Amino acid sequence: MSYVNDCVLLHIFSTQYYDIWEIMVTFVYRKKCIFEIGVLAMLNMLVFSTRLQAQSSSHFNTIGGNKTIEIRRISTPDSLAYDDDDEYADEGQIADVSADSLTSKMPMVALPLKSLKVNSPFGMRRDPLNRKKVRMHNGIDLSARYEAVYSMLPGKVVASGYSTNGGYYVTVSHDACVCSYLHLSKIKVKRGQYVAAGQVIAISGNSGKRTTGAHLHLACRMGDAKGKFFDPMVILNFVMQQMLSTSRL
């Protein structure tokens, strides 16, 4: 009964505060949306903090030089290619989102690969190793053939090594979340090392038991390594939006 009363009060409140009502409805009925908003808010704070650090080490600062990192800029940031039928497509196929030859001196965000094609999205799917079973896919699979893997955001390497199912992996903490890159062929960073956005952290591969072909598995958790999994597309969309807004400056 109290739930009904709360809804009535919210409706009355909304007659004069429509914008606030929309936010409250989102909080009540869209937990997933709330979760993603929280992640994006923290990521925006991370990027803002990185910009401040970059400004403090600019050429106006006479103590030390200004260090920049080149990152790839995408040509069509509005969408990604999905191909769930051909889970591990041939590298020669053209991705809907690809990197061009342009670069940007912007050490805040970067794509994890030179070009992106999502072979298998986040969510429930048929097990690629046992098509009779349906199980949760706690990440996304990106088409990659033994190529450089870049850190999407500045952060600290909190784990790296080898696991039976995921093969060689690297996990980077960005305070708001942690991102893991799996099935690698070579690790380029060490635990405890700080990395910049766009820095090469590994080479993709086909290691581990839960793989049917070379690709990059990207998994993201809220908070720390024990947090809840969420769709890495939240991060990728954020990265692309940041790149697009910067390209317009």
What does this structure look like?
This protein has 249 residues and is an alpha+beta fold. It has a single domain, classed as Distorted Sandwich (Glucose Permease (Domain IIA)), CATH 2.70.70.10. Helices cover 27% and strands 33% of the residues. The protein has helices at residues 2-14, 18-29, 31-56, 233-247; strands at 70-74, 97-105, 115-116, 118-120, 123-127, 130-137, 140-142, 148-150, 155-163, 167-173, 177-187, 194-195, 200-204, 216-222, 229-230. The strands form three sheets. Strands 4, 7, 8, 9, 10, 11, 12, 13, 14 and 15 form a ten-stranded antiparallel β-sheet that branches. Strands 1-2-3 form a three-stranded antiparallel β-sheet. The longest helix is centred in the first third of the chain and has 26 residues, at 31-56. The radius of gyration is 20 Å and the shape is globular. The termini are far apart. Residues 54-106 have low confidence and may be disordered.
Average predicted local confidence, pLDDT: 73
- Remind me, CATH topology? Glucose Permease (Domain IIA)
Number of strands: 15
User: Which overall shape is indicated by the principal axes computed on the Cα atoms?
Assistant: globular
CATH 2nd-level architecture: Distorted Sandwich
GO molecular function: metalloendopeptidase activity
Pfam families: Peptidase_M23 (PF01551)
Protein name: M23 family peptidase
InterPro entries: Cell_wall_metabolism_enzyme, Dup_hybrid_motif, M23ase_b-sheet_dom
